[in-house]
Structure formats: structure tokens, C-alpha cells
Design brief:
Layout (H helix, E strand, L loop, with lengths): L9 H17 L10 H21 L4 H26 L5 H30 L1
Length: 123
């Protein structure tokens, strides 16, 4: 059965968990990064579930597939920013490992959802 709302999508649910963790970890970043890396990291993280929701709201067609690709790109951007934060000493290895594991799960869910949407387009 297809999801009636984006809130039923596991990919969206896990992406929301990821956003929460990114906000928790980025609270410890230096104050002078508020409008730099902290802002960019949070915006990229928020973009992942936002694009899942917007795409699902547009139906199971090409638009949804496009928004899922945007979500995947935002996820990659977020990961890159976390690696920069680690290099700068803003996030420790354990916190980074936790977030990256969550990001890997969201990425797998996005790929699976994309495949599912793709099958709907060919049927």
C-alpha cells in the first residue's frame, strides 16, 4: 500500500531523526561558525526530509523522483560538511560515526524509495 502522507515514509522519519542529531551535535560548534558551517550543515540536513515531503506531495511521478535526487544530493552535502567539521575539531569521531551511520541508512532508504518510484513510472 502506498503511503498516504510523507509522514508515513520511513525515509522521511529517519531523515527527521538525522536532522535532530545534526542540530544536537552542531550546538557545540564555535559561536563564530553560526553563520558559516553550522548554518550550511543544518540547512543541508533539513533539506533532506523537506524534499522527501515536497516530492511525495506532488505524487508518485517524475516530480517525486526529482525531489528524491535532490534529497540525496543534500545528504551528500551534509556529509561533506560534517567531514569538514571533524577536520576542524568541531565534532568528535564517535559523534561523526553515529551521524554517518544514520546518513548511510537514510541514503539506502532514499535509493530504495527511488527504485520504487521508478517502478511506478514504468508500470
Amino acid at each position: 500500500m502506498a503511503a498516504k502522507t510523507y509522514r508515513e515514509l520511513v525515509a522521511w522519519q529517519r531523515a527527521m531523526d538525522l536532522v535532530t542529531e545534526v542540530y544536537r551535535v552542531s550546538r557545540r560548534f564555535p559561536r563564530d561558525e553560526t553563520y558559516g558551517l553550522t548554518n550550511q550543515l543544518r540547512r543541508a540536513a533539513v533539506s533532506v526530509p523537506s524534499n522527501i515531503a515536497e516530492g511525495q506531495g506532488r505524487g508518485m511521478g517524475l516530480e517525486f523522483a526529482r525531489f528524491l535526487k535532490i534529497s540525496q544530493g543534500s545528504l551528500q552535502e551534509m556529509e561533506k560538511q560534517l567531514l569538514i567539521a571533524e577536520r576542524l575539531g568541531y565534532v568528535d569521531a564517535a559523534a561523526l560515526a553515529t551521524i554517518m551511520a544514520m546518513a548511510d541508512e537514510v541514503g539506502r532508504l532514499l535509493r530504495g524509495l527511488s527504485k520504487s518510484v521508478g517502478k511506478c513510472l514504468t508500470n
